[in-house]
Structure formats: C-alpha cells, structure tokens
Design brief:
The protein is built from twelve helices and no strands. The protein has 239 residues and is an all-alpha fold. The model has no long low-confidence stretch (mean pLDDT 86).
Length: 239
Amino acid sequence: MTSNLKNVKPIFLKELRSYFNSAVAYVVIVVFLVIVGWFFTSDLFLMNIASLRMMFEIIPAVFLFVIPAITMRLLSEEKKSGTIELLTTKPLTDVEIIAGKFLAAWALVGIALLPTLLYYITIASLGNIDNGPVIGGYLGLLLMAGVYVAIGLFASSLTENQVVAFILGFVFVFALYMLDKILFYLPGWLASIVEFLGIDYHLSNIARGVIDTRDIIYFLSALLFSLYVSVLSLQRRNW
C-alpha cells in the first residue's frame, strides 16, 4: 500500500468545502456545541462547579452520534452516484482517496472543538486551572475523533446507503466505546484484555494529563488499521 499521496490535498480541500457548501458542517457544529454547552453551563451556573470535567466526559458520548453523521456520506454517496468510478479514472490511488476524505472529516471535528476553548477561557478567568489535564483532554479527544472518523469511513465504504452507513458507524464506535464498561461481567484474565481494547480507557488515561506512549500507540494503531481496512473495502470494486 504505497503512494506518494500528492493528490491528498486537493481531495481534502474538496471534501472540506463540500461540508460547508451544504448544511452538514453548520448543523453538526451547532448541535455539537449546543449539547456540550448545555452540560458545561449546567455545571457552572446551576451546580456552581467551575470545571471542564463534565465537558470532557460528555464529548466522547456526543461523538458517538456526531462523527458517524459526518462520515456516513464520504464513500456511500460517491458509490451511489457513481462518482467513485469517476474518481478512480483520474490519477488517484485508493490510499489518496481514503486519506483525503479522512483528513477532511477529522478537520471538521477539530473545527467543531475549537469554540469549546471559550469554556476553558471562562474557567481560567474564574481562578487557577491545571493545564495538564486540559491539554491531555483535548489531545485525547482529537485522537479519539481520528479513530471514530476512520471507523466511520470504513462503515461508509461498505454500503451505498447513507442511513445504513450511519447505523454501521454508530454500532462500530459504540461497541469500541463500551468495551471497558462490561468488565464486571468478564473473568479477570479476559477483563484486562478487553479493558485495553476499550477506547474510553485510553482517553481517560490521557485526560489525566499523563501522556503514556502505550495510549498513543493504541490510538494510532486503531486509526491506521481502520484506514487500512477502508482501503481494502474500496478496492473490492476491482475484485
């Protein structure tokens, strides 16, 4: 799976523009910020808790719905309209197509996260704040988003129907999110393995402000594997 990736940037820019040329980007960003903002302001004004803890706890759950909504059209729409064949007649490789679309969707999630820095500024203005967990929290969220986007892209490569792609993407990321929450029902030797496979376990480690290479390797491995199977899925049209 080699490529000089010279065409990734045009695909990235085309996909990112397509989000903002339609209502997708605006709806996703507004819904995301409304949900996260509601929990943040509830903590701040109703419970008098000046903390970002609730924000970092709720965003992973919101990602379960938002990211499949972002990724569901990436390949399924191309396949349904037949434009995927047009793409492949150009001097593009499957790796470039997957990489460009992945980076565009990941960038959109990053853009949605940017306004939440206002919450950090608000808390910082009210008193001292430990920046370590904040930096770790945002890094963990970006890495988690990358994994979810790659999984959602894979789900989109499996079908021509966007609704089916959304449902598949949600099921895949929800299963990964829930792995470390079913440990009580598992024997000890299996629980430790399942815990390590759960994405929320690694996010919580990074969110404490301690950057462990094992957690970084987990996120990058999950991300790259999901992109790899997305490429394989896209290549099925040639089989």
